[in-house]
Amino acid sequence: MSRIAARFEQLAGRGRTALVPFVTAGDPNPEVTVPLMHAMVAAGADLIELGVPFSDPMADGPVIQRATERALARGVSLTQVLEMVRAFRAQDQDTPVVLMGYLNPIEVMGYASFSEQAGAAGVDGALIVDLPPEEGHDLITMMRDQGLDLVNLIAPTSTEARIAKIGQVASGFVYYVSIKGVTGAAHLDASTIADKVGEIRAQIRLPVGVGFGIKDAETAGQVARVADAVIVGSAIVGRIESLADTPERIPESIAEFLGGLRAAIDVADGVGHGSTSR
Amino acid sequence: MAIHADNSHASRMEPGRESAYDMPDANGHFGPYGGMFVAETLMYPLEELLKAYEGCMADPLFQSELDADLRDYVGRPSPLYHAERWSREVGGAQIYLKREDLNHTGAHKVNNTIGQALLAKRMGKTRIIAETGAGQHGVATATVAARLGLECVVYMGEVDVARQEANVYRMRLLGAQVVAVKSGSRTLKDAMNEAMRDWVTNVDNTFYIIGTVAGPHPYPMLVRDFQAVIGREARAQILERTGRLPDALVACVGGGSNALGLFYPFIGDTEVAIYGVEAAGDGLETGRHAAPLTAGRPGVLHGNRTYLMEDDNGQIMETHSISAGLDYPGVGPEHSWLKDSGRATYGAVSDDEALAAFHHLTRTEGIIPALESSHALAYAHTLAATMRPDQSILVNLSGRGDKDMHTVAHHDGLVL
Ligand SMILES: Cc1ncc(COP(=O)(O)O)c(C=O)c1O
């Protein structure tokens, strides 16, 4: 069983919702990322989304755009991101890591080469913003050969027919983008999320994560009531940005923030504050 | 003229005489190029756009409205002009200019914005957005938005805002909001990123008028079809004038819309050589250029797979050209296909060569061309010199140079 499937099965067995933080690899510098990943796991992260910097992040709002620019200024490449995952895996064999980014760095590396190297580094999947199922066939096949999941996005504009189409290729989990917009944009509306997640569950038998617009403990708790995973990006990246000049403080500060989210999710899950040891 | 009303796929059958050319396929692919590489949020809106477009193409009412606008508002057909004095000076082939510079708003861009704005109206959209480089597409979009009473927001890189001041002011006069984009290289590609972000956010009421044959399917096809009026007219005009097809076509390639507009109706005419001209900027060898077809390699950007200027890590590189309209690291996917298939040949012309051609046409023919178009003129000059006087070259004069006065003056050490 893949690490992603194992993790969701384990959580489901305990009635818990996954907390999934997103950080841009190499932001604000490459040395921070691996210690930060470990700190996030210690603070209650169940799966980590690691952003691969790309020069033209079309689906990202200003916060993640700036994180990308900081990482690119340090020359962070896809190859280096894979190295970071390899370093993380030396100490953590259980927490799934999903890369999130855009297709072009993978195109240039080559689909086969990427799949092999990512698999060998200990990556568990990839979420490629600009790769809808219509264009994904070749990459999905090669990733699957290496035991990697290609995680698909579902949007508020996804029709029933599109959800069905996505269900045919999706693996690992699916990611419901809760708002029309870029990362870090508007506020989420928990009631419409519940309806859409219901629609997704009617057609797809994979865990459903929800992201975009989750900014604090309150929204994390709301989403935890309907989703299998709560995905938090810009709220974390914004905190990293404010500490860019004192990077040594980043792991502790982010861990503290995640701790608050974790507690809210636990309350929503009905497992109570800190009542379950992890 | 315009797109035949009685056949929903007429536009794809036009290029020629007994042409087997039938691109793109149903998924928007031109061989390995093109496609729909966008976030899931945009997939359904793109499906809707395709449906609306196919509906309009099959609707005689839409066609007659489009034809009337192109005639009465844009001023079509644009003339075909035999540049006799210039041809004589070159001493080779006869050079004919397709005068897109005489269109309302001064470039070919309006052919496309008229079409897409009618489409937006049909789809009930109330808000128009666009990206622009030189500002020509922004002006052409602001113009049609003003006419139809639609809200209009134009994204433009901060660098371009500075070098195309006059067009920024024109857009504002027309009632558009011009947003200076400060991210990335602050040029056309970043303006396109920002327009995509806006579209994803406001997709319910907003129509994104892409200005060239790039972006996700169906844009490359749709923009080509709206621009193909250039080639259809030119083909009929030159046949009438000279009794035969031209020996060569030449057009500048930024995203590639004026070029494809000219080329498309000739694709099946295999005896006609096709040349696309990219911006070599400071020179290809300097790396400071905007010539993905000539010096780049395939990748995925802005919704399609095509030739790009990118580094070994897949990051898009900054480009350079004296002409803002050519300053783009990608190119429409159909050009990538035409290059690989060998049907078209692509070359590049430097800033200095384009400037020389700019001055040359101005002095010999009394026509001040856009700097973008000047790249095509420079290439045509060299090509014509290798040909015989009984041969002919058809050049797309895609726009007029009014917008470039400051740039040229600055280059000559003057401040206007
Ligand atoms: C006059 C003119 N020609 C050419 C171009 C390049 O665009 P395309 O390659 O799509 O024709 C522009 C773009 O702004 C333009 O203004």
Describe, in short, the structure shown.
The complex is a heterodimer of chains A (278) and B (416). Chain A contains twelve helices and nine strands. With 278 residues, chain A is α/β, with parallel strands linked by helices.
Can you describe what's shown?
Helix content of chain A is 49%, strand content 13%. Chain A has a nine-stranded parallel sheet. Chain A is an alpha/beta fold and 278 residues long. Chain A contains twelve helices and nine strands. Chain B has helices at 10-13, 40-57, 60-74, 84-90, 109-122, 136-148, 158-163, 165-173, 188-201, 219-227, 229-242, 257-263, 292-295, 333-340, 351-365, 371-385, 405-411, and strands spanning 29-30, 33-37, 80-82, 94-99, 127-132, 151-157, 177-181, 206-208, 248-252, 273-283, 288-290, 297-301, 303-308, 344-350, 392-397. Chain B starts with 9 loop residues before the first helix and ends in a 5-residue tail after the last helix. Chain B is α/β, with parallel strands linked by helices. Chain B is built from 17 helices and 15 strands. Chain B has a domain at 80-106 and 228-412: Rossmann fold (3-Layer(aba) Sandwich), CATH 3.40.50. Chain B is globular. Chains A and B meet through helix 3, helix 5 and strand 6 of A and strand 2, helix 2, helix 9, strand 12 and strand 13 of B. The complex binds pyridoxal-5'-phosphate. Pyridoxal-5'-phosphate (PLP) binds next to helix 6, helix 12 and helix 16 of chain B.
